[in-house]
Write a structure and sequence with these properties.
Layout: H1 3-11, H2 18-30, H3 35-48, H4 52-63, E1 81-85, H5 93-103, E2 108-111, H6 122-126, H7 138-147, E3 150-153, H8 161-171, H9 179-192, E4 197-204, H10 213-229, E5 233-240, H11 251-261, H12 268-281, H13 286-294, H14 297-309, E6 329-334, E7 339-344, H15 346-358, E8 372-374, E9 382-383, E10 388-394, H16 397-408, E11 411-413
The structure holds uracil.
Amino acid sequence: MHVPSLISRKRDRGSLSPDEINWLVTGLTNGEIPDYQWAALAMAICLNGMSATETWALTRAMRDSGEVLDWGPPNSRPPVVDKHSTGGIGDKTSLVLAPLLAADGLWVPMISGRGLGITGGTLDKLESIPGFRINLSRPEMEAQIHSVGCFMAGQSPSFCPADRKLYALRDVTGTVPSIPLITSSIMSKKLAEGLDRLVLDVKFGSGAFMKSREDAAQLADALVAAGNLGNISIAAILSPMDEPLGTSAGNALEVRECIELMHGLGPPDLESLILDLAAALSPTPRATHAARLRDGTVWNRFKAMVAAQCPHKDPDLLGIGRTLHVAPVITDLPSPGSGILTRADAATIGQAVLALGAGRSRADDSIDPTVGIDHLRKTGTPVKAGDALCRIHARSQADAATAASTLATAFSIA
Ligand code: URA
């Protein structure tokens, strides 16, 4: 096969066969096809799209570029399930959903990512728990699935290496926003987890990748089609991301909020989305899942997961955000007027939280677990002039002042 001819065919809106796609992905993984040729191909795909057959061939080739987890025959074990969110501000559902599903008797092998840009990442949040290990070996994953029912880990180098390479290339060549490339990237990783069932949380709105509900629905359809071809049971929920989920954004602050939720003290929007996602994966009544969030069942499972992934230290959980990871400056953002809060713009709040040091602009940036916002007031609620719209956690007075001036533009009161 001749790479320039395949690139040219895609440039001219032709299609690639599954064998050609396999060969191109093998060449990407083993380095025989140079990055510049794959970058050109990614741009041709980004501009001209791919058919469902091509998208599935790309997804399967990327899944099979590395190890695929295998949990044994379905009749010998519980159903293996997971969820994937396309990312948003304050989206911390995974931290609660994994132990909730494990407490329901399901197996949840959650392989998560880091935050990039304004969207946070599950691994960064988890690492605010002292000693939490996100690098688990395959035997450790297997042992923990049997003992706890869930784990939350990072992607090992042998897991979907083609996606790792292609995502890095897309990130620097303007080729991230492409439905076939996003679909194959997300679904190759989820299918490599060896799942029986997957629920997708496809977000739309100012703080999401997809700005409109229509675009989110299109992405959801493509993801569901790939899941069907991969022989898993798959459902998609479309959820709004015009304001942050819950009342906090920032790593330790979000872990704190999850701990409160697992004590029955969570914000209703966060709890409701977690229960919706659980309902798509488990036949257990919603009220039973809700009761388990209040009676300590989910909290105990979360602690078991943390204990399993912090083998050499005593994980300090209740201190997070209270005595541990407390930012030097904590200050309220006062409301400029009275009325009903009509807007708490997720994208602007995400930018402010990123600038405070909670996120990354580049993959190798370091993050500060202490910073962010909490006590965020939700839209639709009444406010009086001077009431706090949110609380800012910053490394310095100057950072807090910069965040306050950005955040002031995120809120509207009518
Ligand atoms: N998340 C992924 O894993 N891949 C994409 O392409 C976009 C979001």
